[in-house]
Amino acid sequence: FADDSSYFFDASASVQRKLWERGDYKLTAGAGAWAGGQEGLTRFDIGPRANVHVPVGKSDMRFSLDWRQRIGGNAVPDSGVALTISSGF
């Protein structure tokens, strides 16, 4: 590890409602809050979120499309669209 190491944090929370479901496929939408930072740079965003849940074996993948409106902090980029791809196990 480097001697010049510093802290890093990342957090998120969202509330969502199911809009559509067919079999194991789902579409959900709601709102989220995201925060992150490291030494000298931070950001706090809020905004809407839409998710598509796709079954993969015994788990699923989730494609999340967000609008993240920066309401605090100094990290770039500015407000904008974010796509997150995740999977559970």
Radius of gyration computed on alpha carbons:
16 Å
Indicate the proportion of strand residues: over 45%
Structural class, from helix and strand content?
A: mainly beta
Major sheet summary line: 5 strands, antiparallel
Q: What assembly state would you assign to the polypeptide chains in this entry?
A: single chain
Secondary-structure element pattern, one letter each: EEEEE
Stretches where pLDDT is under 50 for at least 5 consecutive residues are none
Overall pLDDT, averaged? 94
**Number of DSSP helices?**
0
Termini separation: 30 Å
Task: Explain what this protein looks like in three dimensions.
There is one protein chain. The chain is mostly beta strands. It has one domain. Helices cover 0% and strands 76% of the residues. It contains no helices and five strands. It has strands at 8-22, 25-38, 41-56, 59-73, 80-87. It has a five-stranded antiparallel sheet with strand order 1-2-3-4-5, with no helix packed on it. A hairpin with a 2-residue loop joins strand 3 (41-56) and strand 4 (59-73). The radius of gyration is 16 Å and the shape is globular.
